[in-house]
Design brief:
alpha+beta; 10 helices; 5 strands; 18% strand; globular
């Protein structure tokens, strides 16, 4: 996978929340859709510049890249953030604490300090860390189970295929008795990129859209990162 393929992957994950007005400096949906349909090397700088305006995502990508000596928009860094991989193991907890305290100024200072100081050991900076533990930087997105469930990257196993929708056996979040819980659930997702799917295929999904076809390793990466960050989030909630 080269630079164009890596950026296309990032655009697919970023597109839905950007169209909803939750992430990114402005609406980039037209340029992302155009790039996905006809990716050109000459458009790479424009795509990279737009992705840099996704405050949370780019902050994590830079940190992952810094401690692994890679480019923030490299294949491995993008995979680490959206799915999870071994690059996450190299980011020290002190760097994560500094990021929370100094970069996420949209969150009140006291809350930033509490969340940073609570971290005692390595954390996995996959997307679920932000959704479950940090929550959201955009004040329009309240940290409720419905929003977290929509925002988290899910894995799903295809059960049925319709025209533009796909029924899957997937994961869903709920909040009960002071804990965030994960359960398996049958969910329907849009198939905006028109993947040729069949029953039994594995996919990832974000904000109700299938983002890419994955394999068993991809599923395990999402699962490992999500459950690790779920345990961290519930420990924090229980502590306070």
């Amino acid at each position: 996978m080269g630079k164009i393929e890596a950026l296309s992957r990032a655009c697919k994950y970023a597109l839905a929340p950007n169209k909803l007005g939750y992430c990114g400096k402005c609406d980039y949906s037209e340029i992302y859709i155009s790039f996905l349909k006809n990716p050109k090397q000459e458009d790479v700088p424009k795509i990279e510049e737009s992705l840099k305006s996704f405050r949370a995502m780019y902050s994590y990508l830079k940190l992952i890249a810094e401690y692994n000596n890679v480019n923030p928009f490299s294949e491995k860094a993008i995979e680490a953030y959206w799915l999870g991989n071994s690059l996450l193991d190299n980011v020290p907890v002190e760097a994560v604490k500094s990021l929370i305290k100094n970069d996420f100024i949209e969150i009140p200072l006291k809350q930033r300090e509490m969340k940073a100081d609570f971290l005692k050991k390595k954390v996995l900076l996959q997307h679920s860390f932000h959704v479950l533990y940090i929550n959201f930087l955009n004040p329009r997105l309240k940290p409720i189970a419905k929003n977290m469930d929509n925002c988290i990257v899910k894995y799903g196993k295809v059960l049925e295929i319709w025209k533009d929708k796909v029924k899957t056996k997937s994961m869903a979040l709920s909040y009960n008795l002071g804990e965030i819980k994960v359960m398996e659930k049958v969910l329907s997702f849009e198939n905006p990129y028109r993947y040729d799917l069949k029953k039994g295929d594995l996919v990832s999904a974000h904000w109700g859209n299938i983002i890419e076809k994955i394999d068993k390793i991809g599923k395990s990466k999402i699962k490992e990162s999500t459950f690790s960050n779920l345990a961290l989030a519930n420990s924090y909630l229980g502590h306070f």
